[in-house]
Each structure stands twice: as C-alpha cells, then as structure tokens.
Fold this sequence. Notes:
disordered N terminus, 2 helices, mainly beta
Amino acid sequence: GAGDIATRALGEDxxxxxxxxxxxxVGYTDAKSDQRVVVGGSWASESQALRDHVTAFYPSxxxxxxxxxxxxxxxxMAAGGGxxxxxxGDVSVxxxxxxxxxxxxxxxxxxxxxYTVTNTFDPKVSYSLRAKAGFAxxxxxxxxxxxxxxxxxxxxxxxxSNGGYHKIVNRSETFNGFEIGGGIEHRFGSSVSLKLEYIYxxxxxxxxxxxxxxxxxxxxxxxxxxxxxxxxxxMHQVRLGVNFHF
Length: 246
C-alpha cells in the first residue's frame, strides 16, 4: 500500500545518502594575514631612504592559531554509481588574535628619529557556500568541496614617532575569496554521521588608509602624510563535525 511505498522510498534515500542535514563542528584554525603599505602625500618631500624605512617597518605579518566552532546545513543527492553531490553552507566562529608592538626603532637615515608601531589582527567569523562531490563506499563518504567564503576581522594599527607624529587604524573588515578542501564522513544508521574535513581559504585582501590621531604633528592643513595599507587573509581549518540527517 501507500505506507509500504513511502517506507521503501525513505529506506532508499537513507541507503543512497540523499537528503538534507544540519550539524555542528569544532576544530583548529591556522590563519595568516600579511600587510604592505604605500606612502603618499607629503611623504614625497622626504628622502627615499626614510620612505623605504617606513614601508618596511610599518606593516605586519600576523599569525593566529586557535580553535574554531560553528555549524552547517546542506543537502546531498546520490547521482548513481556511488557518486554523491551536494551543497553546503557553514559558519565558523574564530578564536584568538595577535597584537605586536615594535619599537621605538631609530630610522637609518635619521637615527634621532624613531617610530613605534602596534599591529593587531583579530579574526571573528567566517562563512561560506560550497559545492560537494564525493564517492560513497558503504556508509562512508569521501568528498571534495569548493566554493566561496567570507570572513570578518578587526584590524588596528597605531603609529607614533618621537617627533609627535601619530596615525591610527581601527576597522572591521569583510574579506572574501575561494575555499577548497575535502573530507571523510561516516554514517551511523539513518540519522547521524561524523565527519573530519580540511578547508583552505584565500579570502583576498582589503585596502584602507591610516587616519591622523588627535594632536598629531605634521598634520593637515599644512601637511598631509598618507599611508595606504593592503592586507590579506589566508586560513587553514581542520574540523571535526556531527551531522543529523532528515
């Protein structure tokens, strides 16, 4: 009867891996963020040696290693012959931040002039939409995944000199770029599975300017020294997760 047909159809979906799921993950993040800086405006009146010192000294290379946790929702569909394709959206909260202060460091062309710089990189959350394709061997799915992701991070820079120059950056930025990875997922019965996956993402870069702090010397309207930072964001994630299928 109709009940038997529905039961058989459900059993086939469970066996072939098709259906929707939601789940949670916890794992480890290795995030890196590099800056570079271009100076302009009144910096053109300074020597090339001083400009070279500033562009080498101001930027940071940040590395944040800490736990991540989050969740996902997706849908898998059996395509025959053990092939499974799907679509997944996920969100991951990122822990940890790096803040480093360098200086006061004398400049090579003017040893009496020194700079101190503090750079802070604080990744907050990442989220993505990815396609999946894999091969099911019994209750175990081996899959590759790829798509597009976004990530929010707080960025701060504080630049000061013993000559009274003071510039700051205090921003929240959204990065975006591709994600690729793969994993293995084993299903226990019809409704629960465990997975282990690796995701690499290159979230591209953002560009921003440093602002004058109140009371800074060498400031407008008489002078206007500009520093334009470009900062990238790359991340490796290993995540252990549980999915509930329905």
